[in-house]
């Protein structure tokens, strides 16, 4: 592993999803864009060929994503999803109460974070506050609207 890269904590499930995306980009999407680029190149004057320029930009963007995925996969550190002593860890689901309303969050690696589906990164402000805490403890998180107090109700 390259000493300049930090290890990226991720679950096996998250790593498998990234590998699947990489495979699809390399084996399907990239050849489609290369083919489109080749067809556009054969249309003549490249300076005024928007299909060529669009395809070239798409290919550059795709190649950037491919490199990014390769880097993450190469530096991935698979974390075991276990509940340690009833404390919040990466991979645990945490039930928290905010002013009586309960929410369940799953603590995941930054590459798996999906706030809409209540998957929050261990690097996020809430994730950092919750890591290592146990049922019954409270954490305060600074939010745009002010401090929010979360009470941990359950960890599994």
Observed structural traits:
alpha/beta, single chain, Helix Hairpins, 156 residues, elongated, Chitinase A, domain 3, 3 helices
What does this structure look like?
The strands form 2 sheets. This protein has a 5-stranded mixed sheet with strand order 5-4-3-7-6. The protein has a two-stranded parallel sheet with strand order 1-2. The mean pLDDT is 89. It is built from 3 helices and 7 strands. A hairpin with a 2-residue loop joins β6 and β7. The chain is of the alpha/beta class. The protein folds into 2 domains: 8-78, Transcription elongation factor, GreA/GreB, N-terminal domain (Helix Hairpins, Orthogonal Bundle); 93-155, Transcription elongation factor, GreA/GreB, C-terminal domain (Chitinase A, domain 3, Roll), CATH 3.10.50. The protein is elongated. InterPro entries: GreA/GreB_C_sf, TF_GreA/GreB_CS, Tscrpt_elong_fac_GreA, Tscrpt_elong_fac_GreA/B, Tscrpt_elong_fac_GreA/B_C, Tscrpt_elong_fac_GreA/B_fam, Tscrpt_elong_fac_GreA/B_N, Tscrpt_elong_fac_GreA/B_N_sf. Residues 8-77 form the Transcription elongation factor GreA/GreB N-terminal domain. Keywords: DNA-binding, Transcription, Transcription regulation. One of its GO terms (molecular function) is RNA polymerase binding. Residues 85-155 form the Transcription elongation factor GreA/GreB C-terminal domain.
CATH superfamily of the largest domain: Transcription elongation factor, GreA/GreB, N-terminal domain
Poorly predicted sequence stretches spanning 5 or more consecutive residues: none
Spell out the helices and strands N to C.
EHHEEEEHEE
Structural class estimated from helices and strands: alpha/beta
> What proportion of the residues form beta strands (DSSP E)?
25-35%
Helix content range: 25-40%
Main pleated-sheet profile: 5 strands, mixed
What is the residue-mean pLDDT, rounded to a whole number?
Answer: 89
Supply the CATH architecture of the largest domain.
Orthogonal Bundle
**Helical region count?**
3
- What is the highest CATH level, the class of the largest domain? Mainly Alpha
Distance between the termini: 33 Å
Number of strands: 7
GO biological process, one term: DNA-templated transcription elongation
Protein name: Transcription elongation factor GreA
Keywords: DNA-binding, Transcription, Transcription regulation
GO molecular function, one term: RNA polymerase binding
